[in-house]
């Protein structure tokens, strides 16, 4: 990784297996099976702002997010960045062609202090692909990622910016809604627009009492109204 994260200090066995049991990917495994994976692929603590992937140091690694959020993005020739995904707990990212995961010329940066499980291709083959339960969950996770990307591409082509912002807020907030911990700049990058436009749209949503704006945080107060704006039905 670009900024080498510190390994998580040695936990007691129960705590280390708990780290894995909290991930949906390993939810079907027994404590002994989770302990085997925890021993072979230990967690790493990563500071906020750490660049965990860069095309300048290409290496095949699979990252599984335990805590925190990771922003994956690409940069244009003029220096602008385009956020391609916000990856949260239980989700996967990295350069692992055997799983259909590619970063290529992309970057990955920690948005929060977090904990990552890092696996090499040999780890993936030995620890993940040998268990049909895990393979099934990986397939579902990657299928969901693909569907999300297709939706974003469709929105970019067919929807105006305000609807795209509302759609992104609704997706990130979830149901029931939880705080969207992004700055205006980060949300703009994710949607593919400017900070000024994003701030204007958020200001309009705030004026309607659909959202509450805080520093680095957006609370969706009326998810139904935001979804209606996203769908163009309001």
Low-confidence stretches: 8-22
DSSP helix fraction: 40-55%
Class per helix and strand makeup = alpha+beta
In the sheet with the most strands, the strands line up as: 1-2-9-4-7
- Per DSSP, the total helix count is 8
Report how far the terminal alpha carbons are from each other: 45 Å
Q: Tell me the number of strands.
A: 11
Order of helices and strands: EHHEEEEEEEEHHHHHEEH
Radius of gyration: 19 Å
**Largest sheet, described in full?**
5 strands, antiparallel
Task: Indicate the mean pLDDT.
Answer: 80
How would you sum up the global shape? globular
Proportion of residues in β-strands: 15-25%
Task: Reconstruct the topology from this structure.
Elements: E1 6-7, H1 13-21, H2 31-40, E2 43-46, E3 51-53, E4 61-67, E5 70-75, E6 81-87, E7 92-95, E8 107-110, E9 114-119, H3 121-128, H4 132-158, H5 161-173, H6 184-191, H7 195-207, E10 211-214, E11 217-220, H8 223-231
Antiparallel strand pairs: 1-2, 2-9, 3-8, 4-7, 4-9, 5-6, 5-8, 10-11
Index terms:
single chain; globular; 8 helices; four-stranded antiparallel beta sheet; five-stranded antiparallel beta sheet; 234 residues; alpha+beta
Would you kindly provide a brief summary of this structure?
The protein is α+β, with helices and mostly antiparallel strands.
Structure report:
A hairpin with a 5-residue loop joins strand 5 and strand 6 (81-87). Residues 8-22 have low confidence and may be disordered. Strands 1-2-9-4-7 form a five-stranded antiparallel β-sheet. A four-stranded antiparallel β-sheet has the order 3-8-5-6. Helices cover 41% and strands 22% of the residues. It starts with 5 loop residues before the first strand and ends with a helix. It is built from eight helices and eleven strands. The chain is an alpha+beta fold. The longest helix is centred in the middle third of the chain and has 27 residues, at 132-158. It is globular and about 55 Å long. Helix 1 crosses helix 2 (31-40) and helix 5 crosses helix 6. The protein has helices spanning 13-21, 31-40, 121-128, 132-158, 161-173, 184-191, 195-207, 223-231; strands at 6-7, 43-46, 51-53, 61-67, 70-75, 81-87, 92-95, 107-110, 114-119, 211-214, 217-220.
């Amino acid at each position: 990784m670009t900024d080498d994260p510190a390994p998580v200090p040695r936990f007691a066995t129960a705590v280390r297996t708990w780290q894995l049991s909290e991930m949906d990917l390993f939810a079907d495994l027994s404590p002994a099976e989770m302990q085997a994976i925890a021993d072979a692929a230990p967690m790493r603590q990563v500071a906020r702002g750490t660049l965990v992937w860069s095309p300048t140091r290409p290496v095949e690694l699979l990252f599984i997010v335990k805590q925190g959020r990771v922003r994956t993005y690409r940069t244009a020739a003029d220096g602008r960045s385009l956020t391609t995904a916000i990856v949260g707990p239980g989700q996967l990212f990295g350069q692992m062609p055997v799983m259909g995961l590619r970063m290529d010329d992309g970057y990955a940066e920690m948005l929060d202090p977090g904990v990552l499980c890092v696996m090499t291709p040999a780890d993936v083959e030995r620890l993940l692909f040998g268990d049909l339960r895990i393979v099934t969950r990986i397939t579902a996770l990657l299928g969901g990622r693909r569907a999300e990307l297709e939706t974003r591409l469709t929105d970019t082509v067919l929807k105006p910016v305000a609807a795209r912002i509302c759609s992104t807020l609704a997706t990130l907030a979830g149901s029931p809604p939880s705080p969207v911990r992004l700055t205006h700049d980060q949300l703009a990058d994710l949607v593919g627009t400017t900070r000024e436009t994003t701030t204007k749209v958020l200001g309009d949503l705030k004026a309607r009492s659909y959202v509450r704006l805080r520093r680095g945080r957006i609370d969706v107060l009326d998810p139904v109204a935001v979804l209606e704006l996203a769908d163009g039905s309001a």
